[in-house]
Amino acid sequence: METIQDFFTADHRECDYRLADLESAIADGDWEAAETCFREFHHDMERHLQREEALLFPAIETVSGSTMGPTEVMRREHDQMRALIDEIRIAKDQRDDNTTLGVIETLMTMIQLHNVKEEQILYPMADRFLQTQRDDLMEQVKVLAP
Amino acid sequence: MNNLSRLSLDRTPPLWVPLQFMAVAPLFGVLFAVAMILLGPQVLVSRWMPGMIGAAHLLVLGYVAMVMFGAMQQMLPVVAGAPVPRGLVTGRLSFTLLALGTPLLGIGLILHQPFWIAVGGALVLGSLGLFTLTALIALARSQARGPTTQAMTLAVIALLVTAVMGGWLAGGHLGLGWPLPRHMTDLHLAWGLLGWVALLVAGAAYQVVPMFQMTPEYPALPARLHAPLVFAVLTVLTLTALLPVPAAAAKVINMTGSGMLAALMAGFAGVTLWLQSRRRRRNADVTVRFWRIGMVSLLAAVLVWTVIQLLPGRGLWGVWALVPAWLFVAGFAVSVINGMLYKIVPFLVWLHLNQTRMRSGNFEMRVPNMHEVIPLGLTRLQLHLHLAALVAGLTALAWPVLLIPAMLLFAASNGLLSWNLFTGIRCYHRCLNAPRPVAD
User: Given CB atoms, is A116 within the 8 Å cutoff of chain B?
Assistant: First the structure.
C-alpha cells in the first residue's frame, strides 16, 4: 500500500505544476488559458488542503493527543494560502498581470516552504504513527472530492 | 507520541536575525573591489601576493560566510525543524565578530600587519567557531534526514577544518614558530572552496532548485554520494600531505583525488544545468539566471583548472591560477548567493508582514507581494552589472590594465545589490508603520 509520504508528496507536485502552468499562461498574456488554469489549480489545491484538514490532520491529532502541535501550524498556513489564492483571483479578474505574477510568486514560495516541512518532517512521522490505520485512511483520502 | 505534538514547525526567527547578515554582505563585495583598485594591477601577478590573499578573505568571509550564517539561522528552524541554540544571542554575536574581524584580518593581510592579522583572525575564528558549533548542534537535532542536511553538515565541518588550517597559517605568518608548508595553503583553499562553499551550494541546490524552479528532483544516488565523496577525497588528500607517504604514491593519490574532485564539481554543475533545462516554470526570473551563470562558471572553472594541470610545468602559478579562482568565487559562489538573496529577502519581508497582520488582526494592513518588495527592474539591472563585472574581471586577468574598470563594475553591482536589499527592509518598515492602507 502507498505511504502517506508518497501519496501526499505526489499530490503536492500536481498542485505545483498547476500553479506553474497558471503562471506561464499569465506571463504569456493568455487570459483565457489563465481562466482554465486557475480553475484547475484551485480545484486540486483545495482538494489537497481538505484531504489534510479533514482526514490526515485529525488522525495525527488523535494519536498525538493534541490539536495545538504541528497540525495547528499547518492549518494556519493553509489559511494564508487561501488568502493568497483569493488575491490571485481578484488580480486575475482585473487582468493586472504584474500583481497576479507577484502574488503567484509569493504563493509559490510560501507553498514550497510549507511543503518542505510536511514532506521532510510531518509525513514521515505520520507514516510511523499511523501505520495500523493507514490503509483505511488512504482509502478515504483518495475518494474525497471538494 | 509526545515528540509529535512537541514538534514545532513555526519557529521563524525575527527578521533582523538573517537580514543583518544578508544586507551587509554585499558591502564586503564593494570593499573587496575598493581594495583591489587601491592595490592596482600589479596585484594580479600571482595568488601569493599578500594583497591578493587579503582581498580574497574580504570576499569569502565578508560575503560568502556572512550570507551563509544568515541563511542557516533562518533555514535551520524553518526547514530542518531545529533552531540554532540561543539563536538571538549567537546570531548577534557571530555577526558582530565576523563583521569586525573580516576587515581587520583582510587589511592586516594586505598590509602585512601581524597585530591586525592576530586581532582580526581571532575575531573571525571566534565567529566561525561559534557558528559551526551551534549549527552542528542544530543539524544533529534535526528530524530531517535528506541529502540537504547531509551536505550542509559536511559543509559546516569543512568550514571548521578550513578555519583551523587558516588559524595555523596565520600563526605561522605571525612567527609563532610552527612550520608553514606550502601545501597547507592548498589544503586550506581546497577545504574552503570545494569542501565548504561547493557542498553548501550543493546542499541548498538539492532543496531549492527542484522547489523554486520546478525541475525534476536531483537523481537520488548521486545526490546522496556527492558530498560524502568530496569530503572523503579531501580527507585522503589532507592525510597524504600530512603523513609520511612515499613521493611516488603521493603523486598518484594527488592526481587521482584532484581528478575525482574536478569530476564531482563538473558533475554537479552539469546535472543542475540539465535539471534547469527541464523546469516546469518557464519564466526565467533573475534567480534562475543567477543560478545558470553560477553553474556555467563552475564548469568553466573546472575546465580551466584541468587544462592548467595538464600543461607542461603544471602547477597553479602566476596569473593563470587566478582564472579558476575568479570563476569559482565571483562566478559560481557569488552568483548563486546573489540569486538566492532575491528569493529569500522579499519572501521574509512578506512573511513577517503577513504574520504581523494575522497576529494583530489588523486586516486593513496592506502586505506587498514579493515583486513589490524589491523593484524587478533594479534586480535585472544588478544582474547585468554582475555579469559585466564577471566578464570584465576575466578580461582583466589577461590585460591587467582593465582591473580598475572591472572592479568598478563589481563595486557597482554589489552596491546596487545592497541598495536593493535595503529597499526591501525599507518596504518592511513602511508597511509596518503605515496606519491606514495605502491606496494604489
Answer: yes
pLDDT single digits (tens) A83-111: 999 999 999 999 999 999 999 999 999 99
Confidence of residue B314 (pLDDT cuts 50, 70, 90): low
Domain that holds residue B433: 290-440
Looking up residue A24, the CATH number of its domain turns out to be 1.20.120
Stated pTM of the model? 0.91
The structural domain count of chain B equals 1
Ramachandran class of A138: left when φ > 0, alpha when ψ lies in -120 to 50, beta otherwise: alpha
Q: Do A109 and B343 touch (CB under 8 A)?
A: yes
What is d(CA B280, CA B403) in angstroms, rounded to the nearest whole number?
40
pLDDT in tens, B197-209: 999 999 999 988 9
Q: Is B400 among the domain residues?
A: yes
Cell of B32: 573587496
Q: Assess A24–B contact: CB distance below 8 Å, yes or no.
A: yes
Across the interface, of A69, A98, A124, the residue whose CB is closest to B6 is A69
Residues on B contacting A at a C-beta cutoff of 8 Å: 1-2, 4-10, 78-81, 143-144, 146, 207, 211-212, 214, 280-283, 285, 343, 347, 350-351, 354, 358, 369-372
**Domain limits at A42?**
4-143
Would the pLDDT of B5 be above 60? Answer: no
Q: Do B369 and A102 touch (CB under 8 A)?
A: yes
pLDDT at B80 over 70: no
Beta carbon pairs, A and B, within 8 Å: 100
Q: B110-122 in b/e burial notation, b at 16+ Cβ within 10 A? A: beeeeebbbbbbb
Whether the per-residue pLDDT at B355 is higher than 90: the answer is: no
SS3 B375: coil
B340 domain-assigned: yes
Q: B125 lies in a domain?
A: no
Residues of B in contact with A101 (CB under 8 A): 283, 371
**Residue B183 lies inside a defined structural domain of this protein:** no
Q: What's the number of domains chain A is made of?
A: 1
DSSP string across B327-343: IIIIIIIHHHHHHHHHH
Share of chain B above pLDDT 90, in %: 68
